[in-house]
Amino acid sequence: xxxxxxxMLDFETTGLSPAMGDRITEVAALRIVNGRVTERYxxxxxxxxxxxxxxxxxxGISQAMVDAAPPVARVVPELLDFIGSDTLSAHNASFDExxxxxxxxxxxxxxxxxxxxxxxxxxxxxxxGLPSYKLGLLSGQLGIRFRSAAHRAESDAEVAAEVLxxxxxHLGQRYGLGAVAPQLLVSVNKLxxxxxxxxxxxxxxxxxxxxxxxxxxxxx
Length: 220
Hints:
alpha/beta, disordered C terminus, single chain, about 50% helix, 5-stranded mixed beta sheet
């Protein structure tokens, strides 16, 4: 599926912007190796902040749950160690990365991931024309089901990982691409949807050329 590991990340937070004082309440990070999740880091997080009632209604994460959770000073360094230098992915990745960087900077740490891959942007480019790319609706359109409640970090990360694997399988079936490099997907993220088919077809042709030459040489 993938030439190198990818870590799918999902945060639950108190709001939309760390610049406005919002903090993380829960994290899930799933390492995808080849075609499956091989490791995971999941934890509620105590940032010593008030949990808005609408967040509790949306996620089910209560004030009591985060008050009893491990402190952010422990969770974030463990999370950064877990991610390491692997490529980082998330659905609407800029949102999760800005919270990761903000929480790391608060503690005097730096992020080390090799690149950022957005499964939402990637889905728009690989499957253009779908009615919605929100995770809950997109997953249903692709035949992927939530195994537990949405709007919890581990559940959302699991479904986003399945979306990424679905995309990898699609690239294999349509373009004959075998092991997909994470950097290839990062590059696709940066293209317009209209340019993606030609880009992938050229990659597929380039990949098949050495194999064809090798077959010709053996036949000779």
